[in-house]
Amino acid sequence: MNSKKIIRTLFLIGLITNSTLANTNTDFEVTRIAENVYSIVSPSFGLPTPENKGWNSNSHFIITKKGVLLFDTGSSEAIGNRIKSAIKTVTDLPVRWVVNSHSHADHWLGNAAFADTVTEIISSEQALSEMKKYGEEDVKFYSKVTNGTIGPTRLVYPTLLLTQGQKRNFGGVDVEIIFANDGHSPGDVLMWLPKEKIMLGGDVLSSDWMPVITGHGNVPNLISTLYAIAKLEPTIVLTGHGSATTPESIKRDADLLSSVWKQVQSDYGNGRTPEEILLTVKAKLEPKYGPLYKDFVPEIERHVKLMYKLQQT
Fold this sequence. Notes:
InterPro entries: Metallo-B-lactamas (IPR001279), NDM-1-like (IPR050855), RibonucZ/Hydroxyglut_hydro (IPR036866). The protein is α/β, with parallel strands linked by helices. The protein has helices spanning 3-13, 77-87, 125-145, 219-231, 247-269, 274-289, 296-311; strands spanning 30-32, 37-40, 59-64, 67-71, 95-99, 120-123, 160-161, 167-170, 173-179, 189-193, 198-200, 236-238.
């Protein structure tokens, strides 16, 4: 893979950052969130590496009367199998349904591990299109940057495409699908459990880290989605990376992104350079937001530069 393709892959995943967290812990521990809701949280945030064997994103699952509903499957077939083994530590029921939150490799390349038990692998049409376009390239990239520690991975694509505002009942558990309107990437979806008041959101949602924006996402739509989620007042929010969080954190992210977007938009119109805009943004926002994120300083620079480029499109 040439350097341009590597940079594209990193950029789309949203992980070009100086704040990559190196963690060699590869234990797939299950954390109980509610009576029937569990999380498997990756201790690594950032790039796939030989040390983390490509495992750099979270998965969540719901145990229903008729099987397990799994939200995101990790970034390789081997990781998917580790997730499957972790699920078996709390239930003998098989994974019957998989929801892929979006098309970035670290959230769906593990689909193959569940092909023997699932009845449906679910995503949006836009996400499926991206998966088919970049799937083979992403497998090669993950294998390259992890020195092959991800092992072989078969591409298993979603079999059921979602429509906007769809509601389903999975084995007695009511689920509502929320579209982020391409906020993070084309076809992002979130999963809302109205009875449990739990939101599962892939990379649309963040906790300890700055919001993950990308060049093929829609920042204004991401902001509006975050405000809408906060208004639902979930008791807990499960993210694609990092620990579980609260609606207060989601509103924090929306407020931050809104402030930066408005500043960049205004200053771009007045002919200011990205460097000038960054100085203004940091002066205004770092005192408030700097202590609230683990990666504010490097990421606020990336946010400003990316938002500036988006003004030009």
